[in-house]
Specification:
- With 124 residues, the protein is mainly beta.
- The protein has one domain.
- Helix content is 6%, strand content 49%.
- The strands form two sheets. Strands 1-2-3-4-5-8 form a six-stranded antiparallel barrel.
- The longest helix has 7 residues.
- It is elongated, with a radius of gyration of 18 Å.
Length: 124
Amino acid sequence: MQGVLCTGLSFPKYGTAEVGAAHWIPAVTLNLIAKESPAESVYPMVQIGITHTGEYLAGTLGAGIRIPNYGPSRSGGLLVTRVRDPSTLKPGDVVTGTAQIDADLKFRDKVTLNYYIGVQRAFL
């Protein structure tokens, strides 16, 4: 399944001008959908997936529901990623340009956790 995720995690861009962060990101997920359901029209699922924002690779782990003949599946869960931040530069430091900032960016030592909600559609 392919879809999009919405997350509260910001993916910072550092530079000499202020730039907003995108929160809608594409995702490829594997949805393990139950074959049988107590409610015949709603099927629970477990979801694992991967997303990429250009600079950041993230994994997803969540749960959701699939309602046949009623649009895309809906899901929610945990987004796990590492984010790059400046290692020595601080806001207000004088820099020669964006290249100096980019060279100072390092991945955080710890992983970052946040929520996501998503919609997915099967293309099969």
